Amino acid sequence: xxxxxxxxxxxxxxxxxxxxxxxxxxxxxxxxxxxxxxxxxxxxxxxxxxxxxxxxxxxxxxxxxxxxxxxxxxxxxxxxxxxxxxxxxxxxxxxxxxxxxxxxxxxxxxxxxxxxxxxxxxxxxxxxxxxxxxxxxxxxxxxxxxxxxxxxxxxxxxxxxxxxxxxxxxxxxxxxxxxxxxxxxxxxxxxxxxxxxxxxxxxxxxxxxxxxxxxxxxxxxxxxxxxxxxxxxxxxxxxxxxxxxxxxxxxxxxxxxxxxxxxxxxxxxxxxxxxxxxxxxxxxxxxxxxxxxxxxxxxxxxxxxxxxxxxxxxxxxxxxxxxxxxxxxxxxxxxxxxxxxxxxxxxxxxxxxxxxxxxxxxxxxxxxxxxxxxxxxxxxxxxxxxxxxxxxxxxxxxxxxxxxxxxxxxxxxxxxxxxxxxxxxxxxxxxxxxxxxxxxxxxxxxxxxxxxxxxxxxxxxxxxxxxxxxxxxxxxxxxxxxxxxxxxxxxxxxxxxxxxxxxxxxxxxxxxxxxxxxxxxxxxxxxxxxxxxxxxxxxxxxxxxxxxxxxxxxxxxxxxxxxxxxxxxxxxxxxxxxxxxxxxxxxxxxxxxxxxxxxxxxxxxxxxxxxxxxxxxxxxxxxxxxxxxxxxxxxxxxxxxxxxxxxxxxxxxxxxxxxxx
Length: 661
Fold this sequence. Notes:
Blueprint: E1 2-7, H1 10-20, E2 25-29, E3 32-37, E4 42-46, E5 52-55, H2 68-72, E6 77-80, H3 83-94, E7 96-102, H4 107-120, E8 126-129, H5 137-145, H6 152-180, H7 194-210, E9 215-223, E10 226-229, H8 237-245, E11 250-263, H9 271-278, H10 284-296, H11 316-321, H12 329-336, H13 369-386, E12 390-401, E13 404-415, E14 440-442, E15 445-452, H14 461-470, H15 479-488, E16 492-493, E17 498-499, H16 501-514, H17 520-535, H18 540-556, H19 563-573, E18 576-579, E19 586-591, E20 597-601, E21 610-612, E22 618-625, E23 632-637, E24 642-644, H20 646-660
Parallel strand pairs: 1-4, 1-7, 7-8
Antiparallel strand pairs: 2-3, 3-4, 5-6, 9-10, 9-15, 11-12, 11-14, 12-13, 16-17, 18-19, 19-20, 20-21, 22-23, 23-24
Helix pairs in contact: 4-6, 6-17, 6-18, 6-19, 9-14, 10-13, 16-19
């Protein structure tokens, strides 16, 4: 009889096998590699994430023939997703006396492990669980020396989420897609978390569109080396001019103060804080993918964590010391030269995984460009959390000229501390020289500045992820995927994010017909229910049934009415590219009788203007305008994504053809 170890991915299996056993052999069955130790008669098999997937029975496959109310109550079935791996798993499981689940320790990881167990379950099978936060020698050995039990409640909470998301997503997606007539690969998706997230973006865009800037006026004085500002803002220019006319040629210093202010070092990275910081370099879903790869290869700890407090068991000083002989030697020395290392800590403290930290020293040559960016970010953040706080000197002055008050402030960095390590936020100093009360200063220049109030900013990846966390939309493991889905389905584009016309239409229809599913409250409640399953106070079946009832009530009250008209109007707007350069009417994306897409004038047949389009990939009209033509920039999404102006693109094509001729 043998020992079978099951990991989440193949590269994790290889690393764990080589840590646990000295005599590892690589075996193959078809395209699947797995690992064997003859001395311990142990096999290590890596899965490909979920090897089982949930689906509706085949009788519900037709979108047009299936009643949506029937879909809500359908009994879901499990289908084998990775047949080769399942076949090998069953073969190895037949002769196993002991099975150790060594998948990632979170809800999804627990479910992946349980799915594998269901394939090989026997009454006489000994089953245990290895839990670890980093694929390093110390962590893996410790986890396998002290195994625990599989947490079936945790797995059930993940299964409940899968079932609820599948049912809600399928029912609402089919409703919106059928109503709009947009079927096939360009269907309109709606989701339990996706929809309230999209509403946030749409409503922010509405705020921006409806915002009416208001002018105001500020009075500023320029002195040698600094500026001072009158504290009042004036909406009336004449009032500002009246005050301005009273200012003399000199100002007297009324008060001057100087004090030091501590700027606290950053808190340790949890998933949300990591993705917010990493989104400065790459989209969040790519950042997470890169981080997972670094984790599997032993460079950083598990990147899916809520924790912002290092556990006492983590030897922070030793981790920092490892970087003395690395590209971060200067930064490590700054940390280790302190008399005492006191790490920062955030408000969240959990016991499943520590905050994200580096687990091995790497150099640029070992990693890809994206891997190095993420690795460097994690290393610098970790060292910054151990460094000294930064200290600023803050100066404030009050001045007066003919009874009119002016204020000036300055800031100077007097101890960089963590800022010498964490290079991602710029320390901006503002000059204000030391002044004395009673000192008289000549005014070099005075002016009235006209300004406008600003609309609220659009959501960036960082601000959207933070708000999703605050509203309990999704989880640390899914938020970046939700944003990716909104982008891939053509609901939003750009950075910061702008909603497309169809996004407005979908949200307006849903708000009008079934506002509940566009608000975060219901989604947050379901997340809390799944927590109850993990705690063992509620059953998976109970929570899924409650969610089915909730969806049934929603769908029963939707009706159709003018839903189709509104959605089709939104879809039509999303096809408008701009103005026809020949007649001035709208040019739109159209399809020929043979199914080929092109840009044509809405004034056809009077106007025959047209432009060719690439035939492969999904095409979206973005919110950006070409600087040379009155048309929108188009985006193609396929194996490669690229953007172009259709007129510029066509002119370049004609030029290349004439050059060849």
